[in-house]
Each structure stands twice: as C-alpha cells, then as structure tokens.
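Methods — Computational structure assignment.
A single polypeptide chain was analysed. Its primary sequence is given first, followed by the predicted tertiary structure written as structure tokens.
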Amino acid sequence: MGVTGHPGPVMDRDEVDRALARLGAEHKAVEDSLLALQDHAGRRLLEGAELTGTTKDRWAATERKITLLWTYFDAYTAALREAREVRARRRWPGREELAELTERLRGESVTVSGSPAKLAERFTLERLVERMNELYADSLDMVVTADAVWSALPARIDLLAAELHRTRSLAHSVGVRPGEHPSGDDLEAITHELASLRSQVVTDPLAFWRPAAGSSAPGGGRPDTDRYDRAARALEDVRREIEAVLQVRQDSETRLLRLRDVLSRADRTLAEARAARGEVLAKIAASEVPVVSGPPTALQERLATAAEYRRHAQWHRLSPLLEALEREAEEELLRAREQLTAVTAPLAVRAELRGRLDAYKAKVARHGMAEDPLLVERYDVARRMLWSAPCDLRVAEQAVLRYQRLAADMLSGAGPVDRGGMQ
C-alpha cells in the first residue's frame, strides 16, 4: 500500500484502538443509513415510476450517487477490516505495525476505482466518511422530497376529484352542462386541470416542491399546492352556484308567487296613480301633474318566461332570471309608489289647506269670535276657493293665509287690521 501523504506522528496503541472504535461506529451508522435508504418507500416508488422532467434527471443522477455510495462503502468496509486484521496480529503491536496502522487509519489508504469523475480516487478513511455523508444527504434529499409530494398531493387530488364527480352529478340534475351554463364550463375546465395535475405530480413530483429558504436538511421545504388550491377554490365556487340553483328548484314556486304579488301591487298602484291624476286635472287648476307610466308589461313577460323555465325544469336559467326579476320588481313597486305620491301631491296640499282653515275657524269659535263679519267673510272666500273645482291652489293658499292672519290678530287683541292687498 503506497503512502501518498504523510499521516502525521505514529499513533500509539490506545490511539489506534480509539480510532478503530470510532471508525467502527461510523461504519455501523453509515450501513444503517444505507439500508434505510434502500428500504425507503420513496426510493422504491422512484425505481418503479415512469418519470419525466426535473425528477427524471435528478433521479438518474441520484441513482449514480447511490451506486457510488455503495462502492465507497464497500471500500470503507474492506479498509476497516484490513486495519482490524493488522491490529489483531498482536496484543502489543510493535513500531512497524503501529506505523502501518497509522498509515491505514490516517493516510490516504483507500483507493476507489471506477467513479464517474476519475478512474481512481484515494481517500483517508475520515474523508471517505465525509464523502459518503455528502452523497447520502443528496440522495436522501431527492428521495424524501419526491416521497413528500407523492404522500401529500395525489391523495388530495383524488379526494377533490371525488368531490368534483359529486358536483358534476348535481350540476347535471339541474341542467348545468358545458356549453349551456358558465358553471358547466368551469366544471369541465376543473376536470381537465385535475387530470393534468395528477399526471404531472405522479411523473414529476420535484416540479411541485418548494424548498425552504436557508434550509440544508434533506427534504427541507414543502409541497407546492398552488395549482391544487386554485382548483379547489374554483370547485367551491361552482359548488355554491349549484347549491343556489338547487335552492331555486326548492323555493321557485314561492318566489314566483311573491313576484306576481309584487308586480300586481305595482300595477294597482299605477292604476291608482292614473285615476288620481285624472282627479287632480279635474279638481286642481294651474298645477303641473306628472304623467303616469303604463303597467310593467316587460316584467310580466319575463315573469311568464320564468314560469316556463320552471315548468321545463331549466333551473340553471331560472336562477339568474329570478334574482333579476326580484330586484327589478321591487324597484318597479317603489317607482309606482313614487309616481302616486307625485301625482296626488296637489290633492295633499289642498287637504292640508282645508284642514288649516277649519282648525283656525274652530279656534276663533272657542274664543267667541266665530260671528265676526270680517272673519266670516274671509272664511267664506277661502272655503269657496278650496271646495270649488277646479281649485287654484296658489290663490286659495293666499285666501287661507289672509283668514289665518286676521284670526291671529284678533285672538291676540289687536283687532282687525287693514292689510292692503291682503284684504
């Protein structure tokens, strides 16, 4: 065995024994690690899988490392065995034997042939252990990473695919199909995405690994679930949409009845507003009366369409139509009420003036002034204007104000006051 590097001072017997014990322990640890790697579920899966992409390239390199690792281990085993044989020759080794053991234990005494990088490499036993640890860490990282992705993602994808199947069945039952409803198209897209995702995860798991920042431990990181998470969210959105359609199937009759009631009330309110407008035009002079719109025929037609959808179980079409109709019907009823209020405003003003006039008449009567000629005269003028048709509200309001002011003056003790143009 040639000496290629000075191993340092010759070791004594105790140093040799301690070194052999330490190297033996390291040999046992390396052997246990190699056997565990050999039996690792991830390695077995990698050996039997049809790999693609990054995983295929990494696994080819890892297989070479594992082969080299066993070659190094065999060389280490042989070198350790030979050193032990030398030590076992005599209980008290002589100078020559201690020098040989020092060379074997500390010098570059191990030659490994046939590695990919060189035709032959020479190692110290300590350096050979370091090299085996490096190869083992790299190999284990690849195996653990692939196994972590395979353990996490395919099962979750399969569960999501089962949920997708149930959702597709529900969607089909309510008429939500590809090409006929957006949610049907979404389900089709999610189906293709899950199939593609599972295929890629199975053949190239390393493409779905997110290493942990700053971590050097084997398998440091986590599976990249971004695509799975997007598919899961998309399916949840579709599922909620399907449930909304199913809810429509359950309560559509009640909602249609409610819609008919709201539109009927809007129609009656508009009819009342049209009748009131005729009354206002006949009884109130010089007043701007807004035109009342016609009945909500367009909404009635769409309501009839909704009823047709229900009869033919087209729930996916009925759902958005009902939502729109409910919103628009409430808006129509509100507009009808606003039109009635606007049309009847002049009648409300006349009623308010009549009430004010009678209230002041009752007030002066309580003070014994009901028979005052001037008050009687002004009351009669105002009453004639308010109870005649057509009534000029502006003139009638001035007459009420004249009566009201005269009554207020007399009640305060000031007596009749000449108010010029107000007389």
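Note: The two ends are 142 Å apart (CA to CA).
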